[in-house]
Amino acid sequence: VILINGEHQDVIAATDRGLHYGDGVFETIAIRTGKPQFWAAHMERLLDGCARLSIPIPDVTLLTAETERLCTEGEDAVLKIIITRGSGGRGYRPPFEPEPQRILIRYPWPEHHVPDEGITLRQCHTPLSCNPVLAGIKHLNRLEQVLARNEWSDESIHEGVMCDTEGYVIEGTMSNLFAVRDGVLITPELSNCGVAGIMRQQVMAVAQHLSIPCEHVRFKAEELNSMDELFITNSIIGVWPVARFNELQFSKGVVTEKLMKGLAKMVEQS
Amino acid sequence: VILINGEHQDVIAATDRGLHYGDGVFETIAIRTGKPQFWAAHMERLLDGCARLSIPIPDVTLLTAETERLCTEGEDAVLKIIITRGSGGRGYRPPFEPEPQRILIRYPWPEHHVPDEGITLRQCHTPLSCNPVLAGIKHLNRLEQVLARNEWSDESIHEGVMCDTEGYVIEGTMSNLFAVRDGVLITPELSNCGVAGIMRQQVMAVAQHLSIPCEHVRFKAEELNSMDELFITNSIIGVWPVARFNELQFSKGVVTEKLMKGLAKMVEQS
Lengths: 270, 270
What we know:
Chain A is α+β, with helices and mostly antiparallel strands. Chain A has six helices and 16 strands. Chain A has helices at 17-21, 39-52, 60-70, 143-149, 198-209, 254-269; strands at 2-4, 7-8, 11-13, 24-32, 35-36, 77-84, 101-108, 119-123, 159-163, 169-172, 176-181, 184-188, 214-217, 229-234, 238-245, 248-249. In chain A, strands 8, 9, 10, 11, 12, 13, 14, 15 and 16 form a nine-stranded mixed beta sheet that branches. The two termini of chain A are 26 Å apart. The mean pLDDT of chain A is 96. Chains A and B meet through strand 3, helix 1 and helix 4 of A and strand 3, helix 1 and helix 4 of B.
C-alpha cells in the first residue's frame, strides 16, 4: 500500500530528483500492533536530514496522519517514508521553490528466522566512502549498501560488516554494530561515514540509563578479536546478538542481554 | 518527452530501486541536428557501468531505436538515458531476476550564455567521497553534486570545482576539468573518485591525435596557480575555456584552441 502526498498511488514522476540523483532521505519504521515505534526519534532524524540537504522540512502533522491511515489496529508492518526534493531545477541545481514528495510505503512485517545462539556475520569487500557532509544522514544514495549486500547469497549469513575506505569498521549493510569489551559498550564513530540508526540511538539511551559506559571508537575489523560480545541493531530487527564473524565465535553475553531487556522495557513503556 | 521501456509514459513505480537507492546509471547525450553525438562511446560507458553494478546489460539495439524515436530531424536536444535495476529484492539485496527499467527523457537544447573570454569557476566546499568501487561510473548517487551546485546562486559563476575528501581536485559539479602546463595537458586522475566523462575521453583522443602529451595527475587546487590554461568539458557544453578561478586569471590558450578545433573536426567527420 502506497501513499504519495496523501493520495493512493504507486508511481512517481520520472523527472523526480529522488530517482535522478538520490536527492532525498528516508526512514524505515517498525509498526507493532498498529503503532509506529520510536516515531518522535524517526521524525527528528528525517527533519534533520532534510535540513542538512536543504530540502524543505516536511509537515510532521501530515506525516503522522498519513502513517495512521496506513496502520491497522493490532497489525505489524514495516513503514518506509521517503522524502525527495521533487522534480525541477536545472541539472544538479535544486529548483528555487522545490516541491518535495512524500512517499509512504507499507510492507508486510518480515518473518526473520534467526538462530537462538545468534547470527552469522561476514566481512564485505565493498568499502563505504567517507564524507562528513553526508555522514549520519539516511539519504537515498545507497549504492554501496546494494553492492555490499550483493556480495553473498548464502542464506545462513545474516549480515555483512562494512568498513570505510581506510579500513575502519562502520556498520552492517542494513544495521549498526555494537561490541562489548570489558563491560564497555563500543560502537563505531560515525562522523565521517555511516548511518546514525534510530535503534542505535535507543540502545545508547538504554545503556546510559543502565549506567553501562558507551564509547564511540574508530577500530579495524581485526580488533573484533578482542571483543567479548557483538550485536547488530536496526529499527525492524531490534537487537540481534552475533554468534559468528568470520572464524570468530561469540556467545550472547551479559551486557547484550541487559540491553535487550532494557530496550523491551522501554518499548513497553512508550 | 519521456519513453519508459519504449512506452510514452511519465511515471515510474514508487518501488523502483533507482528511487530507493540510486541503484542505476545514466547518460546525458547531445542530440545535434537530430543525431546523438558520440553514441558508441556513451553506450560503451552505460554498459560498463551496468556491468560494474551487476545490472543486466541493456539491449543497445532497443536503446538505439528508442533514441531515434525521440530525435527529430535537424533539431537539437539533450537526451538523458537512465537504467535502473527496477523494483524488487529484499531491502538492499538485489532481486534474483531483476527487471531493469529504461527511461529516456528528451530535454530542450539549453542556450548557454558564455562569455567569449571564458567562464568563471569557483571552489566548492562540498567534498567528493572516494570509493574505487564506484569511481568513474555515471551512477545515480549524485547528492554530492547536488549539494555542491547548491552552494552558489550567482549567475555569473558558471561552474564549481570539487575536490575529494583529501583535497585533490577531481572535477566540476557537472563537468570534467583540464589544465595545460608547459604544453602538457593535465587532467585529474579518477581511479578513486569522479565521473569519467565522454567528452573528457574525446578530448584525450584528440590530444593523442595531435601529439599533445596528456597526464592523469593528482593535484590540489593551489596548483592551479601554475597552470597556463584551464578548461572544462561535458557532453552538452563541449569545451568551455576558463577565464577565472577564484582570484586567478587565465586566457584562452593555444592548446585549448587546438583541442577545440580538433574536436569540432572529429564531430564533423563522425
